[in-house]
Design goal:
By secondary structure, the protein is an alpha/beta fold. The protein contains twelve helices and ten strands. The longest helix is centred in the first third of the chain and has 20 residues.
Length: about 300
């Protein structure tokens, strides 16, 4: 009897091994750090619609309230990728985080500004020519300072044209603008539209700067999964372009769209999932080297995951 039972158990174990061998291995969970901003909507759409899973990936979006929290998580190895601007991406690479840029998530687009230099209601309608010496709220050593520098160059304004005031957090910058403590602020959408709704105006936008603003970066060890990630992301872009209004509720919930704009703020157009070019990366690095944020250039092949 013991021999019979042992034989049955042995046969059952062998059968289980055979069956398990025929099953695909469970995909590793890829944790992507995101911020509650408009640029990250395609990631939110791909996750909600199950597109990552359809391409064989198990992706979890981890929401952070600030870029600092996200960057600390990346440096500590708590996330496998992230969404962020190119200045932050290069700084993380400089600090030894091996997460190259896989694709550009938002690019400055004519007719669809993402950042703008906005005025307090007291300066409504003022042209840039009337704003010399005005105080402007920015955050130094970030994409915000980079954009203000680029706007000044494009408008042929001297570097000291505005009086720059360091205000790191966007909500505080908007509040100080609304109460007249500063004359101008460089803000992202939808805060730009909210400021206009409250009586402010737009003095200049980023729409014609032709820059890759934000990117999605993944850890180098995930390189075999890069094509599947791009494919899922591209499918999300197609869906957003085909029926943007069906993603309005997701945009409002995940991208911190203020209640007064929930029904009216347009779903932005997003670029095809291509990496930043070599020339674009060089332009950012030129600026960062000039501001002491980099000591040496980061090779393009290390900074960008070329398809």
């Amino acid at each position: 009897m013991r021999r019979i039972i042992a034989g049955i158990l042995l046969a059952g174990t062998a059968l289980a091994v055979v069956l398990c061998a025929g099953l695909p291995a469970r995909a590793e969970t890829v944790r992507i750090g995101v911020l509650p901003v408009l640029d990250a909507l395609p990631l939110q759409a791909a996750a909600r619609d199950g597109l990552f899973r359809a391409h064989g990936l198990d992706v979890e979006l981890v929401r952070f309230q600030s870029a600092l929290e996200r960057d600390m998580a990346a440096q500590a190895g708590r996330i496998d990728g992230y969404f962020g601007d190119l200045v932050a991406a290069l700084l993380l690479l400089r600090s030894g985080v091996p997460m190259p840029a896989l694709l550009v998530s938002y690019r400055t687009t004519p007719g669809h500004p993402m950042f703008a230099l906005v005025t307090t209601p007291g300066r409504k309608g003022a042209a840039l020519e009337d704003l010399q010496g005005a105080s402007v709220g920015i955050s130094n050593s970030t994409i915000i300072e980079y954009l203000l520098d680029r706007l000044e160059v494009r408008r042929r304004l001297p570097r000291d044209y505005f009086r720059r005031v360091e205000i790191k957090k966007f909500p505080l910058r908007l509040q100080m603008l609304a109460t007249g403590q500063i004359d101008l602020a460089l803000l992202p959408e939808p805060l730009v539209s909210l400021n206009v709704l409250k009586g402010g105006s737009i003095a200049a936008t980023d729409e014609n700067l032709d820059l890759p603003l934000t990117v999605v970066c993944l850890h180098e060890r995930l390189r075999p999964s890069f094509p599947a990630f791009r494919a899922a992301y591209a499918e999300a872009l197609e869906r957003l372009a085909r029926d943007p209004e069906s993603y309005r509720n997701l945009m409002v919930a995940s991208c911190a769209v203020p209640a007064p704009l929930a029904d009216r703020f347009p779903v932005p157009p997003y670029p095809a999932p291509a990496p930043p070019t070599r020339a674009e990366l060089e332009e950012f690095q030129d600026w960062m080297l000039g501001h002491g944020l980099l000591r040496e250039r980061i090779p393009y092949e290390r900074a960008v995951a070329v398809p």
